[in-house]
Write a structure and sequence with these properties.
Layout: E1 5-10, H1 18-21, H2 26-31, E2 34-39, H3 43-51, E3 57-60, H4 62-70, E4 75-82, E5 87-91, H5 104-109, E6 114-119, H6 124-135, E7 142-147, H7 151-158, E8 164-167, H8 169-178, E9 181-185, E10 197-202, H9 203-208, H10 210-229, H11 231-241, H12 247-256, H13 266-282, H14 291-294, H15 298-303
Parallel strand pairs: 1-2, 1-3, 6-7, 6-8
Antiparallel strand pairs: 3-10, 4-10, 5-8, 5-9
Helix pairs in contact: 4-13, 7-8, 8-12, 10-11, 11-12
Length: about 325
């Protein structure tokens, strides 16, 4: 049975390749199908849409997808996109990880008897923050507040409701435009190779229309390569798509966390499986998953057979 439309979910995260693909009609023309782009506030909301068979493809972090898969949502990660996309920002009075010898316990201990904002429960940022708070036994002295709209974290920092925020590089740049804030934990200093987003496909699309999977990944690779190799050009294109974001704003975001590629590297998989363990230990999922439960490597091996590009020279 032929499809007449592809429903593709994405987040507001401005460094995902969808904002370049949304610029022109390449996807529609080359796949010869209508494209319906749908924006979601959080990964867990996108998982719910997959569960209701409202999406064919989606860009999201691995933890919310893992939670969905464990609950029976029929999706697979077919390509990567970016790693190490979680940072922490705070008011300038706090010391950063460099000043504190890269000791995350010391960084987080500054926030005792304070609140830290983070995106929705089950998001990759939420899982990372709670992992370290539990690791350092800070559950009783740091309040974690979840937000369905990540932009509100910076607004509440300005209102003194929060002392810091954990989220994407976009949060760090946005907060810096609103108040005297700084990056206090860098993207590469939280969790090696953490899979900040991958591209997920509904099982029905994979089984019935593999040509669309291959065609989409070809253009996803082209867009991700542009972001990695020509970030200034990419920033200009993204700024033309994302409302309320300037070209300079996008450039700052891309500089904070520059590891872009569509490959599913060994490090990407290893980090994902470490998340599975953490999700199980923290009570987000009831059973551990296997690699085969989460990934389908058949398509990426054809589209990106060369070595991955997540390493920065």
């Amino acid at each position: 049975m032929e499809k007449n439309k592809l429903a593709i979910g994405h987040l507001s995260t401005c460094y995902h390749s969808n904002f370049i693909l949304m610029q022109d009609d390449d996807l529609k023309t080359q796949l010869n199908i209508e494209i319906d782009w749908k924006m979601f506030r959080t990964g867990p909301e996108m998982v719910a849409a997959f569960k209701n068979n409202e999406l064919d493809i989606g860009y999201m972090g691995l933890p919310p997808a893992i939670i969905g898969i464990e609950q029976g949502v029929r999706i697979k990660c077919v390509a990567g996109g970016h790693v190490e996309g979680t940072i922490m920002c705070a008011k300038k009075k706090y010391k950063d990880d460099i000043q504190l010898d890269n000791d995350l316990f010391k960084v987080l201990s500054q926030f005792k008897r304070s609140a830290i904002g983070v995106p929705a429960k089950g998001s990759i940022h939420d899982v990372i923050l709670n992992f370290f708070i539990e690791k350092y036994n800070l559950q009783d002295v740091i309040e974690v507040i979840n937000y369905q709209e990540p932009e509100l974290i910076a607004l509440d920092m300005k209102k003194n409701i929060l002392e810091g925020g954990v989220g994407t590089p976009c949060l760090a740049v946005f907060a810096a435009t609103l108040l005297e804030s700084r990056l206090i934990i860098r993207a590469d200093n939280l969790w090696d190779n953490n899979p900040s987003y991958g591209v997920f496909f509904h099982d029905d699309l994979i089984k019935k229309h593999p040509n669309y999977v291959l065609g989409f990944l070809t253009l996803h690779k082209k867009s991700a390569t542009l972001i990695r190799q020509s970030p200034d050009v990419a920033a200009k294109m993204i700024a033309n798509t994302v409302e309320m974001a300037t070209e300079e704003y996008i450039k700052q975001v891309l500089r904070i966390s520059p590891k872009y590629c569509i490959a599913i590297s060994n490090g990407y998989v290893k980090s994902t499986m470490e998340f599975v363990d953490a999700l199980h230990r923290l009570g987000y999922i009831k059973r551990n998953l296997n690699i085969e439960d989460i990934f389908d490597f058949r398509f990426i091996e054809k589209i990106h057979p060369e070595n991955h590009h997540y390493l920065i020279n």
